[in-house]
Amino acid sequence: AALLVDALLHRSGGTRRLRKILRREKFDIGYTNTINMLPSGLAARRTGTKSVYHIHEIVRRPPLVAKTLARMVGKLADKLLCVSKAAMAPFAEVGVPESKLAHVPNCIDLQVFDERLDGSAVRSEFLQSRDDRLIVAVGRLVPKKGFHELVEAAKVVVAGMPQARFLLVGDTKDSSEKTADSAEKAAPCHCEESSTKQSPQF
How many of the other CB atoms lie within 10 Å of CB of 94? Predict the structure, then answer.
């Protein structure tokens, strides 16, 4: 609920400023790179500017807020570019017309990953035996990255594959208590915390 209050009330000044910019510059299209930025869609609607939302997030909770947000963005946007079918699903479920939805996966330069790196140093540091399997997740340890859900999933994986080891690589400066609590409750999931500075192989 706080997300919608922030978007509709506290950012109303942003909507006015965006509306002035759109009218002054006469842009053809307004591009928004997140689902929780309603002012850009509102400003585009008020000025008759086409609005495109690039959807990366999968917002499911709280259910009422998630559905309301999907409906509002669906009405404001002329087109929703969704990076995955999973990101598209919440909009289809609330009745956003199929003509507004487009599945456009993120482009990745595969050549960057062609080089084979020697991971022996990382494996020797974090694995206890040659039979262990290392699963690595990289990202900021904040709630929206979903690491707490990964830790919960790790319990299921370890139950069927005891040799699995999970390595979370990221900045813990802004990490949430929720992630830390989940990691503690998930034991024995063999989860380790490290950083990109300590593991240059990543």
Answer: 15
pLDDT digits (tens, 9 = 90+) for 157-171: 999 999 998 888 888
Selection from 97, 102, 59 nearest residue 83 by Cα: 102
Backbone φ and ψ of 101, nearest 5°: -100, 135
Q: What are phi and psi of 18, to 5 degrees?
A: -65, -40
Strands 133-138 and 101-103: unpaired
The pTM for the full model equals: 0.57
- Assess whether pLDDT exceeds 70 at residue 98: yes
CA atoms within 13 Å, Cβ hemisphere of 111 = 0
Q: Cβ distance 178 to 152 under 8 Å?
A: no
Element (H, E) at 14: helix 12-25
Distance (Å, whole) CA 158 – CA 18 = 50
**Residue position matching structure tokens 């997140």:** 34
Token pair listed for 140: 């900021």
pLDDT digits (tens, 9 = 90+) for 3-25: 444 444 445 677 888 889 999 99
Residue 36, helix vs strand vs coil: coil
- Tracing tokens 């946007």 back to the chain, one arrives at 77
Its sign, for the CA torsion 145, 146, 151, 153, is: negative
8 Å CB contact between 55 and 79: no
